Amino acid sequence: MHQPAKRFSVGLTGGIGSGKTTVANLFGGLGATIVDTDLIAHQVSAAGGRAIEAIRNTFGADFLTPEGAMDRNRMRELVFADPAQKARLEAILHPLIREETEAQAGRATGSYIIFVVPLLVESKNWRQRVDRVLVIDCPEEVQVARVMERNGLAEAQVRAIMAAQVTREGRLAAADDVLDNGGATDSLREKAQKLHALYCGLAREKTGLAR
Q1: What's the DSSP call for residue 120?
Q2: Tens-level pLDDT at each residue, the chain (211 residues)
Q3: Is residue 152 part of a domain?
Q4: What's the domain range around 80?
Q5: 145, 153 in Cβ contact below 8 A?
Q6: 109, 140, 161 — which closes off a domain?
Q7: Domain-located, residue 199
């Protein structure tokens, strides 16, 4: 990923159900440009998305919904059970996600860029693409409860997804900044405002160094 040297960026990550989107929206409201790789992944695999033809050709029409989007539940079951199939799906999605991520970053007008990357710590190269890593953290029990309510999944399914991700300790070890999202929304907003002030200052410093 080739960003202008002056553009300060933060990689926002966290486990499933940690509240990444909620926190990203707070930063967006404060003036950051948000580039959400998970949202981009949904867009390219939605009905009419750029990945659909390749998904149909690679996995068959059975892995599409009647509306023509990728059947996420069926695909999740397949790739969780078969690493080779996971690699095939990633070979389709990742180049498209990377291309759109770069395009959105190039159009950024905010004080700085926040890249929302669910698997940032697991990735081989995302850490080198951003200036700081922000981990959204909460107790695992909270993650499970949120995802069960939001997605209608059984507890065993949620824990299987969590087990496939890096551990909570592994994420925290990779963090430059940690935002605890296990409590009240008001407290969350205050924490985001403090980090936003820090990032604006760092962004100004980087802009000055780039001149």
Answers
A1: T
A2: 444 446 899 999 999 999 999 999 999 999 999 999 999 999 999 999 999 999 999 999 999 999 999 999 899 889 988 999 999 999 999 999 999 999 999 999 999 999 999 999 998 789 899 999 999 999 999 999 999 999 888 999 899 889 988 999 999 999 999 999 987 667 899 999 999 999 999 999 988 765 4
A3: yes
A4: 47-109
A5: no
A6: 109
A7: yes
